[in-house]
Amino acid sequence: MTGRAAFTAAVGLVAWWAGLALLWLVLIGPVDTLEVVVGLSCAAVGAVTARAAGRAVSRR
Length: 60
Prior knowledge:
Elements: H1 3-28, H2 33-58
């Protein structure tokens, strides 16, 4: 993987993570600290999954 490809992958992951985390915060409303940690962790898992799915589809 080249440096440019790694940078693009990292930007994609951060974009997915931020979007999913923001969506979660909007839908949940006021939250506790533990809920924030769980929500951000789930957003990270979702971002990795979305990136993997995107790569799987683009290889066709």
